[in-house]
Every structure is written in structure tokens, then in C-alpha cells.
């Protein structure tokens, strides 16, 4: 659990100062999910992605941050952690980032005002959402990877239209390892035939941190 340590100072019965720290631990539900992710689901996922690449797929990572008042260093730091996870753990080939957009914003409307200066502070990033759109429009066999549903979109109708309009997107994978230990896999043909599959993305509860 990513939690800043809290230091406290109390006095004992003799009036001496006693220092202690609050220890945060995961509950059993989340602990079991992380254990499964490390020992079972993650290796299967990585083998799956490696096999896709052998079959001429390109794994594209996408990271998103919602608008907020946090300092630039904090926002960039959070996004950089997501980028690192997408490369190191989720084995993507390229990463595209939107610095500030809401999860239910239409994908094609993101970053239309130009490139945010904060984008240049990130390492190993190939551009923003508009750059992603340009890349997939000239590519084939794309597997799009995001960290949790909100990391991509919670607007199911727009997501369906986005997939329908871009035939190069053959697969979507959502990493839920931080919350459930699982990965969710979606095939283009299944989505086109049955749009209700995307109901998973219509998440109303608060989403887990993606970094």
C-alpha cells in the first residue's frame, strides 16, 4: 500500500517521550488478489502479450490523469509511475498519455488544444491522445493496454464508437492487478457483436490508484 508514514509522539507514565509510527497493512481480500497477480495472473498475461508480439501485434499503453489542483511534480510523478508499469510489468511497446482529461470525456476530444508542456517532462512517452489516434490510424494489429477501466474510459458508448472506427484495435487489456489481481481481456469481434461487454467500463465506484 502506497501510504506516507505517519510519525507520532506520546509521553509514557514517566513523562518520557515515546515515538511510534502508524503501520498500514492490506486487508486479506486485497492481499490475496495481489498474491494471485504475482504468482499466477501476471505470468500468464506476460506470456499472452509475448505471443501476440510474435504474431505481429503491437502493444500500446495508454495512461490518463484527471484534472486536479495538485502540483505539477505530483501529477508528472504519478503519470511516470504508470508509464513505468506499462513498460516494465505490462510489456507494452509504446505509451501515449493524456495529462488532464476526465474518464468520461470522448477519446477523440482529448488533448485537442495541443500538447501540454508537462508531457515533455515524462520519459519514454510517444505523445498524447491525438498522437495515439494518428498512430493507430496507420497501424495494424493493435493491443491497447490500460491500468484499470477509468485509465481508458468510462464512456461506454464512445468507447464502442472508438473501437468501431479504428479497425486496427484488435484487442484491449485492462490491468486490474492492484484491486483484484486479475487482467480483463477483450477481443474486437466480441465487442462489435455484443457491445454490452463494455459495461465493465461503466464503473461508478471510485477507481484504484493506477500508479
Instruction: Tell me the fraction of residues in β-strands, as a range.
Output: 15-25%
When the domains are counted, the total is 1
Mind describing the biggest β-sheet? 5 strands, mixed
Proportion of residues in helical segments: 25-40%
Shape: globular
> Looking across the biggest beta sheet, what order are the strands in?
4-3-5-6-7
The low-pLDDT segments are 1-5
Number of helices: 5
Distance between the termini: 11 Å
Number of DSSP strand runs:
7
Protein name: NYN domain-containing protein
Task: Write up what this structure looks like.
The chain is α/β, with parallel strands linked by helices. The chain has one domain. The protein is 33% helix and 21% strand. The chain has 5 helices and 7 strands; from the N terminus they run ββαβαβαβαββα. It has helices at 28-54, 72-88, 129-137, 156-165, 188-193, and strands spanning 6-11, 17-22, 58-64, 94-98, 142-147, 169-176, 182-187. The protein is globular. The chain starts with 5 loop residues before the first strand and ends in an 18-residue tail after the last helix. The model is unreliable at 1-5 (pLDDT under 50). It comes from Helicostylum pulchrum. This is NYN domain-containing protein.
Amino acid at each position: 500500500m502506497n501510504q506516507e508514514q505517519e510519525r507520532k509522539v506520546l509521553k509514557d507514565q514517566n513523562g518520557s517521550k515515546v515515538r511510534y509510527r502508524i503501520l498500514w497493512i492490506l486487508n486479506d481480500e486485497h492481499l490475496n488478489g495481489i498474491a494471485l497477480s504475482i504468482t499466477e495472473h501476471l505470468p500468464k498475461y506476460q506470456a499472452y502479450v509475448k505471443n501476440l508480439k510474435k504474431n505481429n501485434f503491437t502493444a500500446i499503453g495508454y495512461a490518463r490523469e484527471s484534472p486536479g489542483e495538485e502540483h505539477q511534480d505530483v501529477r508528472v510523478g504519478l503519470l511516470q509511475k504508470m508509464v513505468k508499469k506499462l513498460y516494465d510489468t505490462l510489456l507494452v511497446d509504446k505509451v501515449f498519455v493524456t495529462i488532464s482529461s476526465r474518464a468520461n470525456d470522448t477519446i477523440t476530444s482529448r488533448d485537442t488544444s495541443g500538447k501540454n508542456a508537462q508531457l515533455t517532462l515524462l520519459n519514454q512517452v510517444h505523445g498524447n491522445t491525438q498522437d495515439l489516434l494518428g498512430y493507430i490510424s496507420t497501424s495494424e494489429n493493435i493491443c491497447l493496454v490500460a491500468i484499470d477501466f477509468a485509465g481508458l474510459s468510462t464512456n461506454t458508448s464512445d468507447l464502442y464508437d472508438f473501437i468501431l472506427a479504428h479497425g486496427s484495435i484488435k484487442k484491449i487489456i485492462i490491468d486490474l492487478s492492484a484491486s483484484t489481481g486479475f487482467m480483463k481481456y477483450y477481443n474486437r469481434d466480441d465487442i462489435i457483436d455484443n457491445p454490452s461487454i463494455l459495461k465493465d467500463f461503466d464503473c461508478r465506484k471510485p477507481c484504484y490508484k493506477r500508479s
